[in-house]
Design brief:
It is built from 6 helices and 20 strands. By secondary structure, the protein is mainly beta.
């Protein structure tokens, strides 16, 4: 999101010229297009052009104490969510009420109280997400109360939907027949944000716990540590999720591999795993080497496993036994050219990605095999201030 105090003239101001009037609302259009060249174990697989991200947002003030924010992802699903009664492509649709300088309420569809720079930074600025964030939907309908104790310290308390849609539409694989619907699929979370060293250092930590289905809960512990001063922007994220049902599908997809390996003699159909846990660590350093050039190096380490055995194969053997299933390493290198540094909203970039999947014996028993993925990307990112 562009800073509303930016002096860059909007499209509306350029057209209206001297007749332009001051608006309390702002609209941005985010656009990212790329050319991908992919390799599997260093063997060329495909090359293609892709509209990576395209979305628009409008935000502003209704009154001195009342504001709003609406954002739609044009690359997302346009199906209606039966639970939240809103188009799935709409990421945010909330009103913020600030009755005092230290208290604000946010009501509507918004981001969950999940910390980490990669999760909450504008997605158009992320070249390649970690698996955790790539398969995580952070936007839910709910209510949040933020308490600003000091200009540099804030505590947020939130109650929202734990799942944005019914289980059969939300989970990427079939719901196990033993799972019963929850009467209150809600998640409660607390988030603390603090600024230090003249706001060069920002710490952001959160904890959330909620119910997804009967006797199936979700716990998320996340933290982000960001240093931003001068030409350097660096962050270190930690994210842990313990899920009664596999919302990301990274463990569940192994049951699909097993089914395919069985040929026509399939003893079971692909099914969502239960009692899974994910952990991710992300480290990134950006350095503005010149007013027109920025470079960054990024790395991530992730694990996926099962903390309690579940699922039956032929009613005899456990499909998902307890243990670690996968480790993933992710390394990235990127150079960005910024032709208009005074605006900083248009960037051309070249990006290299190396990703290594290392499956344990449990993952290999379900048909998975270790493999590496490489990608070369040439891209353009443009955030256009419409008004």
């Amino acid at each position: 999101m562009l800073d509303s105090t930016s002096t860059e003239p909007s499209l509306y101001e350029r057209i209206a010229g001297q007749n332009a009037r001051e608006l309390s609302s702002h609209m941005n259009f985010n656009f990212c297009t790329t050319e991908h060249t992919d390799f599997q174990n260093f063997e060329f697989t495909e090359s293609k052009f892709k509209i990576r991200r395209m979305r628009w947002e409008i935000y502003g003030d209704i009154a001195p104490t009342l504001s709003f924010h609406f954002r739609q992802n044009l690359n997302g699903s346009f199906e209606l969510s039966g639970m939240e009664n809103i188009n799935n492509s709409i990421e945010m649709a909330f009103v913020r009420w600030k009755p005092t300088e230290k208290v604000e309420l946010m009501i509507g569809k918004q981001f969950l109280n999940v910390s980490g720079y990669e999760c909450w930074v504008n997605g158009v600025d992320v070249r390649e997400f970690s698996d955790f964030n790539d398969y995580f939907n952070p936007c839910r309908a709910g209510v949040t109360a933020n308490f600003h104790f000091t200009p540099d310290q804030m505590l947020g308390l939130q109650l929202a939907n734990s799942i944005p849609n019914t289980l059969d539409k939300y989970l990427p694989y079939s719901v196990p027949t033993s799972i019963e619907k929850s009467k209150a699929p809600l998640i409660a979370g607390a988030q603390w944000i603090g600024y230090f060293a003249n706001k060069a250092l920002m710490l952001q930590y959160s904890a959330s716990f909620g119910n997804m289905a009967k006797n199936k809960n979700q716990l998320m512990l996340t933290g982000g540590n960001v240093w931003k001063k001068g030409p350097v922007t660096a962050y270190l994220d930690f994210m842990y999720s313990r899920e009664g049902l596999d919302t990301k599908g990274l463990v569940s997809q192994l049951s699909d591999l097993t089914t395919a390996a069985e040929g026509n003699a399939q003893p079971w159909a692909p099914v969502s795993a239960q009692n899974v846990e994910y952990f991710t660590t992300i480290a990134n350093i950006d350095y503005r080497v010149h007013k027109n050039w920025n470079v960054f190096v990024k790395g991530a380490f992730e694990t996926a496993g099962v903390y309690e055995s579940n699922g039956l194969k032929n009613n005899q053997e456990v499909l998902f036994p307890k243990g670690l299933y996968k480790r993933t390493w992710n390394g990235q290198l990127c150079a960005e050219y910024i032709p208009m540094p005074e605006r900083d909203n248009l960037r051309f970039y070249a990006h290299l990605l190396y990703k290594k999947y290392n499956y344990t014996s449990l993952g290999k028993q379900l048909g998975a095999a270790n493999n590496d993925m490489q990608r070369i990307t040439l891209g353009l990112v443009y955030t256009i201030p419409v008004f």
